[in-house]
Design a protein that fits this description.
Layout lengths: L2 H20 L3 H19 L6 E3 L11 H9 L3 E6 L8 E4 L7 E4 L5 E4 L11 E5 L2 E2 L5 E2 L5 H12 L3 E5 L20 E4 L2 E3 L5
Parallel strand pairs: 1-2, 1-6, 6-9, 9-10
Antiparallel strand pairs: 2-3, 4-5, 7-8, 10-11
Helix pairs in contact: 2-3
Length: 200
């Protein structure tokens, strides 16, 4: 598949998955988020003393609130990603319990909530990754900016890190095209359970 065809295919697949996500009703979202959190926490196991980066949901993304509550209760420190610049890896700020989040520049015109500028910069042990779409092989579609691929590649060169995708089960597709720079996930947590990637 040519690069231009792959990009077109990714755009159409992303549209399908995001359409399914947007169609979920509020009560179903709440139940699904709680279920996904239970599955993720069970898969992660003992996180006491570890730093876990989560994401703050934008638009119709799955809520990470139940997951954050569970991680804090289990003794994990919570971090949130911060966009430094286009084509650069993400940075991570420690999110202390009770600290109010502030607007931070995200990709393009998007504004994402983040800990304030004075928050400590940390390097996560676990990265909880937002997904537009995913498949059973651990391949993911993000939103096209490549921030998580660049970030994961850098972190994996430096240390052992677990990367777990986090999404609604309706976002799963039969196959997502993978390119050489795409970083595969170690697992994906959804309201339907944990997906441990199959080998290609």
């Amino acid at each position: 598949m040519s690069e231009s065809n792959a990009l077109t295919d990714k755009a159409s697949l992303r549209s399908v998955a995001l359409g399914r996500r947007a169609a979920l009703d509020p009560s179903a979202r709440e139940v699904a988020a709680a279920a996904a959190a239970r599955f993720a926490l069970k898969w992660l196991g003992d996180v006491s003393g570890e730093t876990v980066s989560v994401f703050t949901p934008i638009g119709t993304e799955i809520s990470t609130d139940p997951l954050v509550r569970g991680l804090r209760a289990a003794g994990a420190a919570i971090a949130l990603p911060v966009v430094i610049a286009k084509n650069k890896p993400l940075s991570f700020r420690l999110w202390e319990e009770g600290v109010e989040l502030v607007p931070s520049a995200g990709p393009g015109l998007i504004v994402i909530p983040a800990p304030p500028d004075g928050a400590r910069i940390v390097e996560p042990d676990v990265l909880v990754v937002p997904l537009a779409a995913f498949d059973a092989h651990g391949h993911r579609l993000g939103y096209g900016a490549g921030f998580y691929d660049r970030t994961l590649a850098g972190l994996r060169r430096a240390k052992r890190i677990e990367a777990i995708g986090y999404a609604f089960s309706v976002q799963q597709l039969p196959a997502v095209p993978a390119e050489p720079h795409d970083e595969r996930l170690d697992a994906i947590a959804t309201d339907a359970g944990i997906i441990c990637p199959a080998e290609d």
